[in-house]
Structure formats: C-alpha cells, structure tokens
Amino acid sequence: MKIYTRSGDTGQASLFNGERLYKDDDVFQALGDVDELNSALGVASAFISSPEMLEQLETIQSRLIDVGSAVATPLPSSDEAKLQRTHFAGTEHTAQLEAWIDSMDESLPKLTKFILPSGGQAAACLHHARSVCRRAERSIVVLSRRQAVSSEVNMYINRLSDYLFTAARHAAMTQGAVEKVYQKARS
C-alpha cells in the first residue's frame, strides 16, 4: 500500500464512514488539531525522564487516535456498525486521566499564583501541548454542539488539558527546574 492515494488532490478527503468532505470542513479542522496535539505529545516525550509519565503519554497518544476515529465517524451520518467500531469510552478514559492528575498533584506544591509556561524543556513542551489541546477542544466543541461527536470525546479532551498542565508542573519539579511566576505590569 502506498502512502499517497491522490484522492485528496482536489481538496476533498474521505471520513471513516465514506463521506467525502472538503478539507476545510469543521471535521477535518478537529482531526488536524487532534493530530497536532498527538505530535506535540511526541515532542514532549523526547524530553521526559519519568518512565511512568512516558507510559501515560503513550497511552494518551493511543487514545487520541481513538478520538480521531470518533471524530471521523460523525454520529448523524454513520451506520451503527461504524459507530460501534469507533465508539469512544470517554468516561472510563477520563477517569484514568483524573487518577493520574490526582497522583501527581499529591507531590506538587500548592499553586498560589499564575505560572508562565516554563520549567525546562519537558515542562515547556507539555505546556505547549496543553495549548494545542485547548484548540483541539474548541474544534471538537463545534462538532459536539451539532451532535456530530459524543460529549464523552469533549469531556476527555477537556480533562486532558488539565492533565497536561499538571504533568508540566510535575516534570518541572522532578527535573529541578524553576516555574516562572506571572508578574503583573506596573501602571
């Protein structure tokens, strides 16, 4: 199988359900944002020293492929077999993120001020991934409001940004890097 098909040369691409849409459609915007998030996590992983966090990020990257599958199979225009195949068990996966957040949070100093995206390479990359995650969430909300994607996908992506914020703080702490604190401008 070749990597190129030429089927997208006219500006359209196919979803999992076979529907062809223009590449500037909201579905492809969300798919692209989720894909970019997955790539950002791959970059962050290159700087992570914790085997446990690396394992978590690898699991998350796999779940993001599942999110993409759910997004590429719009609820209103897909048959039951395809919907079952791409069903995203968001409640279960979100609970896993929450458990990881709680575990990391136990060892972190209490947050009393706004922090800037900082704290060394790993933390800065995780903060960047968090920002990309927020964009992906905004793209998915558009689809969720149209009931084209399950609200469980939305819930997972929302919690993932919380995980990435906590993971960035945890990476900074474990690597002995300083998190920079926001300083309000003087009038």
From TrEMBL:
InterPro entries: CblAdoTrfase-like (IPR016030), CblAdoTrfase-like_sf (IPR036451), PduO-typ (IPR029499)
Role summary: Converts cob(I)alamin to adenosylcobalamin (adenosylcob(III)alamin), a coenzyme for methylmalonyl-CoA mutase, therefore participates in the final step of the vitamin B12 conversion. Generates adenosylcobalamin (AdoCbl) and directly delivers the cofactor to MUT in a transfer that is stimulated by ATP-binding to MMAB and gated by MMAA.
Domain named Cobalamin adenosyltransferase-like: residues: 3-170
Family: Belongs to the Cob(I)alamin adenosyltransferase family.
Quaternary structure (record): Homotrimer.
Superkingdom, natural source: Eukaryota
Catalytic activity from the UniProt record: cob(I)alamin-[corrinoid adenosyltransferase] + ATP = apo-[corrinoid adenosyltransferase] + adenosylcob(III)alamin + triphosphate
GO function term, MF aspect, one: corrinoid adenosyltransferase activity
Name of the protein: Corrinoid adenosyltransferase MMAB
Keywords associated with the record: ATP-binding, Nucleotide-binding, Transferase
GO process annotations (BP): cobalamin metabolic process
Organism: Chlamydomonas incerta
Residues in the signal sequence: none
